[in-house]
Amino acid sequence: MLVHYDLPAGHHGPAPDASSALTRATLLGVLLAGRDVGEAARAGSIGVAGNPGILAQLKELLDTPDRNFAIVTP
User: Is 50 helix (H, G, I), strand (E, B) or coil?
Assistant: First the structure.
C-alpha cells in the first residue's frame, strides 16, 4: 500500500514494509529523473524507517516515460 498522507488514529491496515519521508521534488527526482535512491538517503534527502529497498522496488514497477509522447494532438 502506498499512502501519501497521515493515516487516521485507529487505522488497522497491514503494517508497512517501510515509511519514507521526502519532498515531492526528491520523489520525482528518484522516480522520473534517475536520481539514485541510496545516494538520496545517504545525503539525508530521504528519511526511511523499515526496509530501505522498498522505494527502489517501487521505481522498478514504473515504465520509462516516452519523451516524445504527444499529450495534446490536433
Answer: strand
